[in-house]
UniProtKB/TrEMBL annotation:
Residues 44-139 form the Methyltransferase domain. This is Class I SAM-dependent methyltransferase. PANTHER family: TRANS-ACONITATE 2-METHYLTRANSFERASE, TRANS-ACONITATE 2-METHYLTRANSFERASE-RELATED. It comes from Nonomuraea bangladeshensis. SUPFAM superfamilies: S-adenosyl-L-methionine-dependent methyltransferases.
Amino acid sequence: MSPRQAARYDAVADFYASGWTDAIDDPASLRLLSLAEPIACRRVLDLACGHGRVTRELARRRATVTGVDVSAALLAVAREAERESALGITYVHADLTAPDQPWLSTSPYDVVTCNFGLSDIDDLDAAIDATARALRPGGTFVCSILHPCFPGGHHVSGSWPEGGRYHDEGWWRADGELSSLRRQVGANHRTLSTYLNTFRRHGLRLDVLAEPEPPETWTAERRDAARHPVFLVARCVKGG
């Protein structure tokens, strides 16, 4: 487990859980859930599940769900919610990018989801390798991210640092006044081609690419930023 990665999310667990509730109404998360269907009675793995917001919605849709995250503090919130209202979810505290993953040795999953988690993971190649190994042949991987081409706007940080370039990849911490979470935990910027080529290299074929528009409540304070693509949602299918 990456100490830096665990620490930066453990430190914001309460802020994260209170800011992103179970009321899923943002277009990117809704699109991810729609592309994951059908999931009833299927085995679903939710990567970088955090406090279990999307994990619980997957379970409510009658999937058999396992959530995995590197942050013990966020998983504590998720497990408490499961104790209060059991949905049959299994939570695993693990670093997805570690070489030894005994929890992946069970039967393969039908669907793997990752909602706004890939940019939080430092080793993308290892994460997608684990994703591909977790899926059965013909299974689907659905992910949502801040659009790699999003340049930001007034008080809103883009996908790469102000004054930097789209092609310069790496981890950085946002400073935009309205980018509250990424000011605290940072993010990894990668080009669109890096994401898609990594998926392809691990046998995940792009099936659907969507760019949902942000809601009016978001754009009201960010008119200049909303002129650009903000979110990206992709569904891939495992070959074989």
